[in-house]
Amino acid sequence: MKVGPVMKENSYAHVDEYIVKKRTRIARQKRKRRNRVISRVFFLLLLLIALLVCVYFSLGIFFNVKNILLSGESRYSREQILKASKIRKGENIFFVNLNRVRENIEKGLLYVGNVDVKLEFPVSVLIVVNDAKPMCALKDEKGYVILSDGLKILGQNVLTIDESLDIIKGVKLATPILGEKVEDETALDKLNGFTVLNGYMKKAGLKNMRMYDLEDLQDIRLYSRDEKSGIRVRFGGMDQAEHKVKFLAEALDCITDKEMLSETGSGISGELDLTRLVSSGKAIWRPKIDDRAEVVGTNDKEVTKNKRAK
304 pLDDT exceeds 60? Predict the structure, then answer.
């Protein structure tokens, strides 16, 4: 009898059947898990779409611009500012581009300086507009170019200017455009130098200088009136500029002392040389009525004066 081989064949068949059932069960479980995942993802997508639809319609109903509020000090009327801003009532508040609104107003209205735009939820936009303040006048062959404190061009070829404006020589704009800000790199370097120097002047309480010659930033010239009269200052470069300005304020107090006034009284004229102040600690005063040089101060604030011969 051949029993062995038959039993072996039956055992193999049993093992194969077990493996097939196990694989079938595993495949069925994988399909169930996959179907559950697909169902959950599909449900989440439907929920997300429903939420987006709700948000879209709620934004369209509850968050439209209904009020445009204006604040600040400006020469322009409400209608002019709103027209320049290009904001429309009924526009969705979340779609209002604040930077674009600000740029529209700054470019559309010549004398506008600072503009701030804020959202006031749920239905309002606040626009704060302040006019530009003239800061200085650039002198050229055609007259003056008026600049604001934000370096915006407020006027061209102006023949007469307010006496409170500082005059700047030696700064030329390649293509000045009314209402636009200065973009020339060379001019910006010089104007930034002026801004820093002017800030030191105000900090020191110095109001005597009205004209700045910035043709050469290493040889800056300052004038109380003009190149031919008044007090002229050879300032030099911007190195230790704040120290020079403080010294200048003290030196001018000394120069305008009664003992050093010229025969014309308050019409004193001459040149104050600060170019050697950093290296030697001394400034030289050259009065216009004679060529004698006088030391007017040192780092330790001592003052020596050589009285003029009678």
Answer: no
